[in-house]
Amino acid sequence: MKHVAIALLGCGTVGKGVVDLLSRNGQLIEEQLETHISIKRILIRDLPKYEQMDLPDTIALTTDFNDIINDDEIEIVVEVMGSADFAKECIEQCFKRGKSVVSANKDLIADYGIPLLKLSQENNVDFQFEASVAGGIPVIRPMYSSLNSNRIERIIGIMNGTTNYILTNMTERGLSYETALKEAQEKGYAEADPTNDVSGYDAARKIAILATLGFHSAVTFRDVSVEGIEKITHEDIEHASEMGYAVKLLAIAQQNDDGISLNVHPAFIPRSHPLANVGGAYNAVYVRGNCVGDVMFYGQGAGAFPTASAVVSDVMNVILHFNLTVTGKRKYVWHDTKLTDPRSIRAPYYLRMIVDNAPGVLSSISGIFAENRISIRSLIQKDETKEIAEIVILIDASADGLVRDSLKKVTSLSCVRRVANAIRVIEI
């Protein structure tokens, strides 16, 4: 039987998951590949900390990357560190020394994916990163393999488990945003500093990666327009439910004749749509191809074993390429990228405002929208006291820039105390 030695860069949650998965399913993997996989070395930062971890005695721990890069027996390096810049340096050295790389690092791929893919091809090695998006959900490889006969028109997904957990519990249990976030932190779904998740940056990196592959375009995280869920309140959740919608943080990439748009933002989505029923910390990615139509990928988007499953699958794919002598032969096609102006993207909007409870308020607000040729689909006055009232407005599909400009004028009205929220409505 053939033998392939690999090394891990990092041994946190995902790295330990890779070790345990190979131990648990090693025989099954060997039967499929006729190849034995062994972890020879693991690069870590704190040697005493990891010496207490339950790792096989056959694995050598090191704090020196040179121990890995100079070991000619190591053919595949698995990068699960999370740091983008240091990881990039390590991966570049691996390629130049003829070592293929598997990465789970979304920050790295979102910023440097195309240059690294090109470098891997120049050195006739593989670079695979299934685990960089949606954990154990197989979506990266289908994007450039199973769906590659299609022109991908749209990718829309729930790609962050933390925000989906928060919004699900606000919806199903009536929790406030602050309470749901605190619970997510206590259960380990959210970090002590949750900014990367709740502000939409994590999802933005993932949609940039999928758009790069699906649209054959050189886009990065910096091309994504991002809004988070921090302004979502229990009132917004209730109003959405009354109107037949669920509130989700969506990552959306669209491609048409005008160019490519990349957005992450909270949205009302019809309860009848499959994405509306993705609950808890689960992820889902909904893809539309011009021939295949709509397909959806659903599952656990994070966690030790789900993510390790994607990592080891990539390792197996690299070994398959070894055995077929096609390593580094996968070709990618990149087109010139034309990004559409985010302000030109059209969508219906849900608007919630706190206003004076006085005659003429509704006509003043309606007048501003009429001036900008924005049609009001419905206007409902909700809770009110003698002095103030809450109104909820649904407007027809309008350009984002026009909506924002109109809301600035609405806010300047003396009778409007504040525009509490403006959320896009996705009508799929």
Structure overview:
This protein is an alpha/beta fold and 428 residues long. It has 3 domains: 2-133 and 304-324, NAD(P)-binding Rossmann-like Domain (Rossmann fold), CATH 3.40.50; 140-300, Dihydrodipicolinate Reductase, domain 2 (2-Layer Sandwich), CATH 3.30.360; 345-425, 2-Layer Sandwich (Alpha-Beta Plaits). 37% of the residues lie in helices and 29% in strands. The chain has helices spanning 13-33, 47-51, 66-69, 84-96, 106-122, 140-144, 161-172, 177-186, 195-198, 201-214, 234-242, 304-324, 361-371, 400-412; strands at 2-9, 35-43, 60-62, 74-79, 100-103, 127-128, 152-158, 225-226, 245-256, 259-270, 282-289, 293-300, 346-356, 376-384, 388-399, 416-425. The strands form 2 sheets. Strands 7, 8, 9, 10, 11, 12, 13, 14, 15 and 16 form a 10-stranded mixed β-sheet that branches. β11 and β12 form a beta hairpin. α5 (106-122) runs parallel beside α10 (201-214).
